[in-house]
């Protein structure tokens, strides 16, 4: 497989070739500030990539949040409206694909007997075809890509295979985006915790210097004051540190003493 260059999978130098679509997906992951932004860009990219000269596609992305489907991204207002209508009915091809983890294709809404309420509304809005493809996210989340076209039967078997392969690659990129998002959240939580710890340590040092007490006594005094004030320990510590800023030693001692005695 690694020596097969006839399919364009490897460069002459032995490096694997990356398709333009895969490269765009990778860039989305790297350039998006968060997962929601990634999904929005993904919806736009999916619609533009999979549309053909004769068929314009509208794309929406629905995810499960708190056990309920929610529209998080769309290529345009038409796709968003169709997704939100389906969620309001709590039934339709896209939700069926999401719940059953299988591709659902409706080639002609005029002849579709399932989901009659939603299909009727979608048909009235000029939609003739719907293709719903779940994003396989290995249990990290549940999501589905919803594609809409005006003309019935406007996607060929090759078009559908292309869409399925594109969404499969998009799912890999989304899994990476989710992991990066989790790492970013963890990093931010750690940074906040370190900042909080530093503030508390500074406040303890201030109390030790002002009251000429031990570290344990300073911690006890800071904790007692936090309980009396009914604030978090780091917030009380920040007030203590702030009381020292820009004041002489006598003024600072009086301010801290007043804070701790409240």
Structural account:
The protein has 262 residues and is an alpha+beta fold. Helix content is 58%, strand content 12%. The protein is built from 9 helices and 5 strands. Strands 2-1-5-4-3 form a 5-stranded antiparallel β-sheet, sandwiched between helices. Helix 6 packs across helix 7, helix 6 packs across helix 8 and helix 7 crosses helix 8.
Keywords, please?
5 strands, 9 helices, 262 residues, 5-stranded antiparallel sheet, alpha+beta, single chain, disordered N terminus
Sequence-ordered SSE layout with sheet pairings:
Blueprint (H helix, E strand, L loop, with lengths): L19 H12 L3 H16 L7 E8 L2 E7 L2 H13 L3 H8 L3 E3 L9 H9 L4 E7 L7 E7 L7 H55 L3 H15 L3 H12 L4 H13 L1
Antiparallel strand pairs: 1-2, 1-5, 3-4, 4-5
Helix pairs in contact: 1-2, 1-6, 2-6, 3-5, 6-7, 6-8, 7-8, 8-9
Distance between the termini: 74 Å
Oligomer: single chain
Radius of gyration: 28 Å
Chain-averaged pLDDT: 76
> Unreliable runs, pLDDT <50, ≥5 residues?
1-18, 180-192
- Output the structural class: alpha+beta
Q: Number of helical segments?
A: 9
Helix and strand element order: HHEEHHEHEEHHHH
Say how many strands there are.
5
Task: Please state roughly what percent of the residues sit in beta strands, choosing from under 5%, 5-15%, 15-25%, 25-35%, 35-45% or over 45%.
Answer: 5-15%
Helix share bin: 55-70%
